[in-house]
Amino acid sequence: MNLFHKFNASFGRCSTKWSHCNTSTVLATRPEMNSLFKLRLFPLSLERSAQLAQFEAEERYAIECAQIAYDEERERVEEEWKKGRQRVRERLLEGIEERRKRAREEKEGEGTVGGLSLF
Q1: Residue 50 needs a FRET pair 20 to 30 A away by CA distance; which of 22, 66, 101, 110 works?
Q2: How confident is the model at residue 24 (pLDDT cuts 50, 70, 90)?
Q3: Which residues contact 119 (CB under 8 A, 6 or more apart)?
Q4: Could you give the count of Cα atoms lying within 13 Å of 94 in the half-sphere of its Cβ?
Q5: Which residues touch 19 (CB under 8 Å, ≥6 apart)?
Q6: Exposed e or buried b for every residue in 18-33, given b needs 16+ CB within 10 A?
Q7: How confident is the model at residue 117 (pLDDT cuts 50, 70, 90)?
Q8: Distance from chain centroid for Cα 8
Q9: By the 8 A CB rule, do 81 and 87 touch?
């Protein structure tokens, strides 16, 4: 009879020596095939899954907060830029109006000499 298939009638399973050797081999090479190993890992797997779900939720929340902060900052900067552009435009228009006014005054001043009109 083959040693690996020696049947132990008193325990109703393969010999204790073979069973231990087989379990060790399975644990060493393919632990996922051992039901006791999977059973012992189950609570750890549940805890790990819960932590991963929590981390993913926290990451999504952090990304959402960063996006909101970015959008608010962008809106604030754009508003400042628009106000600054409007101020520059107003100053340029004031400068143009002031030059026009001076040009009109100079033109009007050239037409009269000593309060007398040349025409």
Answers
A1: 66
A2: confident
A3: 111
A4: 6
A5: 13
A6: eeeeeeeeeeeeeeee
A7: low
A8: 62
A9: no
Residue 43 structure tokens: 């609570």
Residue 112: strand pairing partners: 117
Q: So where are the chain's domains?
A: 1-33, 47-97
Diameter of the chain measured on Cα atoms: 143
| Residue-wise pLDDT tens digits, 62-84 | 999 999 999 999 999 999 999 99
pTM for this predicted structure: 0.51
- The two three-digit tokens of residue 101, written as one number: 């006014």
The one-letter amino acid code at 11 reads: F
pLDDT value of residue 29: 80
- Per-residue model confidence (pLDDT) at position 72: 98
Q: Whole-number mean pLDDT of the chain? A: 82
Burial class (CB in 10 A: 0-12, 13-18, 19+), 14: middle
Integer Cα distance of 57 and 59 in angstroms: 5
Structure-token pair, residue 119: 């025409």
CB 32 within 8 A of CB 38: yes
